[in-house]
Design goal:
The complex is a heterodimer of chains A (320) and B (335). Chain A has 320 residues and is an alpha/beta fold. In chain A, 45% of the residues lie in helices and 10% in strands. By secondary structure, chain B is of the alpha/beta class. Chain B has two domains: 12-195, Rossmann fold; 207-334, 3-Layer(aba) Sandwich (Rossmann fold). Classes of the chains: A alpha/beta (320), B alpha/beta (335). The complex binds thiamine diphosphate and magnesium ion.
Chain lengths: 320, 335
């Protein structure tokens, strides 16, 4: 991997990690309302996949969506502004963490319905096919969503229509409190792809290089008009399901052990240095830059006005 | 069929309701490449009610996308396609199947625009059909419009005549919001004069289908035809009923109902859907709130009984308002 790509992947992952730390802090300070779901631990998936996407390619995201949003090059200030219920937020405070969308960058939105984004990405891919463009769509979703009916219906549709779409299943070992072992009688979710007649690839979601490589092939295949791919990335979420989750369904040892073993951001730092792609000093400089941007984003959000009152019906209907 | 001229000088042709819908689809698909139809059995077969007949021949399989039986998958694909620049018309074979697709209607299509702070629009039409009268029993005969009227972000359209079917479907396809377009299975083989060429009936405009001075009957879909038949019978007995066809439930043409009731001083709301929690309650309550002093009698609702639709023909008829029921209730209101 060349230096520029490696450093960019690192920067994106480090940004996601820092964003989750900062939003957790803000939540603790009672500045964020509702719920947030941390993507810490899963950064390599969004970073490795979105590195291949242009601004006119589409993604659908999940309740755990901050990482996808950042990897799709969202503005941090507007993300924080959304979490803080400000007018400058991506959804003008109407959506919050679970509904951030950035259509200018092809992000068709996080989704509070588990599996809700899978058919929508499929429809976006249909648009590309219909208009004859080389755009692609990516549906990010969890292991839990893979057991929804939308998964089945959408993968089948995309396969029969050869749609340019990637189904990226983030297997973080849990759907809320349910471990994957109790939700699947198979070890390998990617094998399901065969039943739909599309390639299925299982990848180590800790290793951004591996994700990047698998996604490169799947995106190229989609752009060539050869159809969809299912990618299942093995991963682990460092935090609870949501901020404040008591995690009664996990042992402390399990969590500590995984966190230690499974840290894609620390890993990337290590191999980038070991491969001589960048020095520690260069990596530190990236960290400082990311942290500074983060604080700029938080400051922007905190200084911006609260969301304006709802206008009905103008906001509810496009034409009225 | 023979072309005729109406008073207004627009050429019309007699058509069945399903032909009029077909005409609207064809017209919009010719006019705009972004319009496509998606659904089960819509290609060679022409749709369960022949609304898409012949479209495959003219537009080919990429614009007439016949799908596997995957209600949430296809409605959801419609949402995604609409969000990204197409204008899909998704056919749900029966409104009774909406439950399978409901998440994409309720949580996605209806709310994307608002939830994303105005960043999105969802020009999606979900065409479906409901209603009883064909012995299809409980899982294929419901009238579920009230479900959709309760969801901010959706528009709800229910044409009663072939001309309105064409004009409203055309307007729905051109509309930038998600529209639930609910046809009635027993209207498909009703005939009427339909304007040829481009014909638009704007959403949110009711139609006075019969002028009258003694009471206002507000209805939609197939019951409009029943109301008109009842009005003819009532006229023979010296009762002059006005019949308003709402045509679109959302947006609601409240002014049309208000101004009629202010003249007739009596309101009867009539629908096939179950009375409890039905949209008739919304109309009656609105009039009670805004025109109470104009009323000479309490607003009445005549609607479906609180039961699943039964199978046997006589039973099926017994649970939804019939012409005689309308005549009886109208007379009660005037006595
Ligand atoms: C349709 C639906 N069912 C249940 C929930 C409640 N819920 C929210 S997240 C979640 C777990 C999702 O698990 P997974 O898809 O693996 O995503 P992860 O949280 O692990 O990223 C559940 C059950 C929901 N939001 N939507
Ligand atoms: Mg999970």
């Amino acid at each position: 991997m060349d230096k520029a790509t490696a450093l960019d992947l690192y920067r994106v992952m480090r940004t996601i990690r820092r964003f989750e730390q900062r939003s957790t802090q803000l939540f603790g300070e009672n500045k964020i309302w509702g719920t947030i779901h941390s993507y810490a631990g899963e950064e390599a998936i969004a970073a490795g996949v979105c590195a291949h996407l242009r601004d006119d390619d589409w993604i659908t995201s999940t309740h755990r969506g901050h990482g996808h949003c950042i990897a799709k090059r969202a503005d941090l200030g507007r993300m924080f502004a959304e979490l803080l219920g400000r007018e400058a937020g991506y959804c003008r405070g109407r959506g919050g963490s679970m509904h951030i969308a950035d259509t200018s960058k092809g992000n068709l939105g996080a989704n509070g319905i588990v599996g809700g984004g899978i058919p929508i990405a499929t429809g976006a891919a249909l648009t590309a096919k219909q208009l004859g463009t080389d755009q692609v769509a990516v549906a990010f979703f969890g292991d839990g969503a893979a057991n929804q009916g939308t998964f089945h219906e959408s993968l089948n549709l995309a396969a029969i229509w050869k749609l340019p779409v990637l189904y990226v299943c983030e297997n973080n070992q849990y759907a809320e409190s349910l471990p994957v072992k109790r939700a699947f009688a198979t070890e390998d979710i990617a094998k399901r792809a065969e039943g739909y007649g599309m390639p299925g690839v299982r990848v180590d979601g800790r290793d951004v290089r591996a994700v990047y490589g698998v996604a490169a092939e799947a995106v190229a295949r989609a752009r060539r008009g050869e159809g969809p791919t299912l990618i299942v990335a093995d991963s682990y979420r460092h935090e609870g399901h949501y901020y404040g989750d008591p995690r009664k369904y996990q042992s402390k040892d399990e969590v500590e052990g995984w966190r230690e073993r499974f840290d894609p951001v620390a890993d990337a730092r290590r191999w980038i240095a070991e491969d001589g792609l960048a020095t520690e000093a260069e990596l530190d400089a990236i960290d400082r830059k990311v942290d500074a941007e983060m604080e700029k984003g938080v400051a922007f959000a905190e200084a911006s006005p609260l969301a304006s009152p709802i206008r009905i019906p103008e906001e509810v209907y496009a034409s009225h | 069929m023979q072309a005729t001229e109406t008073r207004t000088g627009v050429a019309t042709r007699e058509m069945f309701y399903n032909e009029a819908l077909n005409d609207a689809l064809r017209g919009e698909m010719r006019r705009d490449d972004r319009v496509l139809v998606i659904g089960e059995d819509i290609a060679e077969h022409g749709g369960a009610f022949q609304v898409t007949a012949g479209l495959l021949d003219e537009f080919g399989p990429t614009r007439v996308r016949q799908t596997p039986i995957s209600e949430i998958g296809i409605v959801g694909a419609g949402v995604g396609a609409a969000l990204t620049g197409l204008r899909p018309v998704v056919e749900l074979m029966y409104v009774d199947f909406a439950g399978l697709a409901m998440d994409q209607i309720l949580n996605q299509a209806a709310q994307n625009r608002f939830m994303f702070g105005g960043q999105a629009r969802v020009p999606l039409v979900v065409r479906t059909q409901g209603g009883s009268g064909r012995g299809n029993a409980a899982q294929h005969s419901k009238s579920l419009e009230a479900w959709f009227t309760h969801v901010p972000g959706l528009k709800v359209v229910m044409p009663a005549t072939p001309a309105d079917a064409k004009g409203l479907l055309t307007a729905s396809i051109r509309d930038d919001d998600p529209v639930m377009f609910i046809e009635h299975k027993l209207l498909y083989r009703t005939k009427g004069q339909v304007p040829e060429g481009e014909h638009l009936v704007p959403l949110g405009v009711a139609d006075v289908k019969r002028r009258g001075k003694d009471l206002t009957i507000v209805s939609w879909s197939r019951e409009v035809l029943f109301a008109l038949e009842a009005a003819t019978k009532l006229a023979a007995d010296g009762v002059d009923a006005e019949v308003i066809d709402l045509r679109t439930l959302v947006p609601l043409d409240k002014d049309a109902v208000l101004s009629s009731v202010r003249r007739t001083h009596r309101l009867l709301v009539l629908h096939e859907a179950v009375k409890r929690g039905g949209y008739g309650a919304e109309i009656a309550a609105t009039i009670a709130e805004e025109a109470f002093d104009d009323l000479d009698a309490p607003p009445r609702r005549l609607a479906g009984l609180e039961t699943p639709i039964p199978y046997a023909q006589h039973l099926e008829k017994s649970v939804v308002p019939q012409v005689e029921d309308i005549v009886r209730v109208a007379k009660e209101m005037l006595s």
